[in-house]
Write a structure and sequence with these properties.
single chain; mainly beta; Immunoglobulin-like; six-stranded mixed β-sheet
């Protein structure tokens, strides 16, 4: 069906007036005298690709149209990660064998491992906000409108205050944790002990202190990372 981006490398491309895949003309951009990026037109079989400039028409190189179906992306695990990237994301779908590229919007993922035709793993690039993940194979690029290909970059949580910051050693105190980027909180710790909690908003988490002793650091974990710590004192 065409539509994929093809990079042509050679010499003497400045002033190019036409790029042809067989007899079909392609839309193209001259990047510089040695590189052109063209959009493959629809076609079939193996065809000669040529570039025409005022100096003449080039020799040809072969481009092969494949009947391999385009990949379909159905889901991701996880759907959230830090803005710095670097975490491993498993991508589920169909026709993933032969994956040549994975993009989080315009950013390319690295360390692509094809586990099977229905699963690949990649290392997420850095990014912000919610983005669409696409997979490219010789059969084409996945359709963002199919499945659940959305990935959200989560900032690192930051804590500003605990109210109250003291309580009995038996625990059970309701503590308001104030900060930023708290929406995606998945764990709250008083020292090494996990606490029961509820994320109320992006700036407030309500936690119930577990039993403890002395002064302990309170931290929050989310897909964006681990927060700074604030001190809670058991009386």
């Amino acid at each position: 069906s065409g539509g994929n981006q093809v990079v042509l490398t050679g010499t003497g491309f400045t002033g190019a007036g036409a790029v042809r895949f067989g007899a079909a003309s392609a839309v193209f951009t001259v990047n510089n005298d040695t590189q052109i990026t063209a959009t493959a037109p629809p076609g079939s079989g193996s065809v000669p690709v040529t570039v025409t400039t005022p100096g003449g028409t080039s020799n040809s190189v072969t481009y092969t149209y494949t009947t391999t179906p385009a990949p379909t992306l159905t889901d991701l695990d996880p759907h959230f990660g830090p803005i710095s990237g670097g975490n491993t994301v498993t991508i589920f779908g169909t026709n993933l064998t032969g994956t040549t590229a994975v993009h989080f919007d315009a950013q390319a993922a690295s360390n692509i491992v094809v586990v099977g035709d229905n699963q690949i793993t990649v290392t997420a690039p850095a990014g912000t906000n919610t983005v669409v993940v696409t997979v490219t194979t010789p059969g084409g690029t996945s359709n963002p409108g199919i499945g659940n290909p959305y990935y959200t970059y989560v900032p690192q949580p930051a804590l500003t205050s605990l109210i109250p910051d003291t309580g009995p050693a038996t625990g059970g105190t309701n503590v308001t944790i104030n900060g930023t980027a708290l929406t995606y909180t998945d764990q709250v710790f008083f020292g090494a002990t996990p606490a029961v909690f509820a994320a109320i908003s992006d700036t407030i988490v309500l936690a119930t202190s577990p039993p403890g002793a002395g002064s302990v650091p309170v931290t929050i974990q989310s897909p964006g990372g681990t927060s700074n710590s604030l001190t809670y004192t058991y009386e």
